[in-house]
Amino acid sequence: MGLKGQSEQAESEPAAGKPPLRVGMVGYAFMGAAHSQGWRTVGRVFDLPHRPVLAVVAGRDGAAVRGAAARLGWADTETDWRALIARDDVDLIDICTPGDSHAEIAVAALEAGKHVLCEKPLANSVEEARAMTEAAERARARGQVAMVGFNYRRLPATALARRMVAEGRLGTLRHVRVSYLQDWLVDPEFPLTWRLRKDAAGSGALGDLGAHIVDLAQYLVGEAITGVSAVTETFVRQRPLPAGAAAGLSGVGGRGLGEVTVDDAALFTARFGSGALASFEATRFASGRKNALRIELNGSHGSLAFDLERLNELSYHDHTEPGVSAGFRRILVTEPDHPYLAAWWPPGHGLGYEHSFVHQARDLVLAIAAGTAPEPSFADGLQVQCVLAAVEESAAKNSLYTPVPV
Ligand code: SOE
pLDDT at position 8, please? Predict the structure, then answer.
């Protein structure tokens, strides 16, 4: 029963009367807010076998986390994630913290018998991602599930693109062309926040944005990247320390500046197992681009193109059409038989960025109820982490860089 049926429906939520799925979330910044929107909404739009409950949100600052609970709709709070995973009134741990805490929290939560949803990238290193994957595999035997939050798989247009590729509508894939462009770091006065420190974030644009496009490309193509060659760059190497900088942040030369220890941009080419070639670009210095994830796939029978800034649309070119009428056409992805759409609005009334988190919550709840492993799994997250590590290794070797003779 979707919203369209709500007028004929009793005022009760679709999931009312279903057994609760009590969620405990760690962290309440941007991703915590986005996940909260997903948990608040999913049971009121999709008819689910469990009723998601925003039970507890955890954060170190008591006053701040209580404010977040009131703002985001959480019933209780904790100031220590260890106390959260020890509670017997929480079934699932949703990790929305910086990457340096993903592994410790996820492994402890799985060993405490909880299901786990962990934000991307899965971890800050391959070693951490592998330990998380092994813990998830052990927990699987106990009926627990674990998923990593690559939410862009869960927009109707990208899910439709995956369906069309799997149906063979593009034929043999030859090219994948992906970029994820933002510009919030162009100002050199932007402070040295955690995303700019390797110890907290693991990497810069590569892990923050590159992880998304590696996962989305592999999801759409349906196979893994087998090798990369890369360049990375840090354009602004020192930034002002944030107000109240953590003790561990050493100023540079006493001028209140700190070292940026991650990449600002990563560009890499890649091969897929079937021989398709790919190009990837991830940067937070693309002046004027706010959240521009664009992907295009070219195959022997056709092409698909998606632009996150036009996320209700999918461009499709059927190369088997007679040339006189062939060309890219726009599919408006708002029909009831498009992925997820039956639960929402009538055709033509588009969705937004936040709906990817509602769909992520839906798919996780359905997997828990069915006892199936949700995708992307921690093993999928580990594979992305291996690609990111290969990019960093290639860039460090710089081996394929051939200076142009002058
Ligand atoms: C910042 O670059 C960020 O919030 C990413 O961390 C998210 O994963 C992306 O969806 C939006 O931009």
Answer: 42
pLDDT tens figures, 12-59: 566 678 999 999 999 999 999 999 999 999 999 999 999 999 999 999
Q: Which atom of ligand 1 is nearest to the CA of 120?
A: 8
Among 43, 41, 289, which Cα is nearest to 179's?
A: 289
134: helix, coil or strand?
helix
Q: Whose Cα sits closest to atom 3 in ligand 1?
A: 208
Q: Is 54 left (phi over 0), alpha (psi -120 to 50) or beta?
A: beta
What's the token pair of residue 150?
Answer: 């690559």
Q: Residue 209 C-alpha to ligand 1 middle, in angstroms?
A: 7
Phi, psi for residue 169 in degrees, rounded to 5: -65, -20
- Ligand 1: which residue has its CA nearest to atom 2? 208
Q: How far is the CA of 356 from the centre of ligand 1 (A)?
A: 13
Residues of the chain below pLDDT 50: 1-11
**C-alpha of 196 from chain center:** 19
Digit-coded pLDDT (tens) for 105-116: 999 999 999 999
Q: Could you tell me the CATH superfamily of domain 156-310+312-351+378-395?
A: Dihydrodipicolinate Reductase; domain 2 (3.30.360.10)
Report how far ligand 1's centroid is from the alpha carbon of 180 (Å): 10
Pick the residue whose CA is nearest to atom 8 on ligand 1: 208
pLDDT at 249: 59
Whether 208 is in the pocket of ligand 1, judged by its Cβ within 6 Å, is yes
Residue partners of 98: CB distance under 8 A and separation at least 6: 27, 194, 195, 200, 201
State the pTM of this model. 0.94
Residue to probe by mutation, ligand 1, list 95, 118, 208, most atoms within 8 Å of CB: 208
Homologous superfamily of the 3-151 domain (CATH): NAD(P)-binding Rossmann-like Domain (3.40.50.720)
Distance 68 CA to ligand 1 centre (A): 20
Which pLDDT belongs to residue 405?
81
Q: How far apart are CA 378 and CA 81, in angstroms?
A: 20
Domain residue limits, the chain: 3-151, 156-310+312-351+378-395
In short, whether 334's Cβ falls inside 6 Å of ligand 1 is no
Query: How confident is the model at residue 403, as a pLDDT?
Result: 76
